[in-house]
Amino acid sequence: MIDRYTKIVLTVIAVALTALAAENSVRMANAKVGYNDACGTITHPPCSVIWSRPMPVHVQ
């Protein structure tokens, strides 16, 4: 007879495997942009973000 601990462990493993299978079966959504070119592709150089002034860092 299987004890309670073994049932819990097997249930956790089954849930984790089901979650992994579901995650791999769902395709990622692609953002629709006004152009087909994206930052860092062969035809477009990497994009950069430049702040106009340094942002303060608050340390508690």
Describe the model.
This protein is mainly α and 60 residues long. It is built from one helix and no strands. The termini are far apart.
Provide key terms for this protein.
mainly alpha; single chain; 1 helix; 60 residues
**Alpha carbon gap, first and last residue:** 55 Å
Query: Which runs of at least 5 residues are low in confidence (pLDDT < 50)?
Result: none
Tertiary shape: elongated
Secondary structure: helix percent? 25-40%
Strand and helix map with partners:
Blueprint: H1 4-25
Brief write-up:
This protein is mainly α. The chain is built from one helix and no strands.
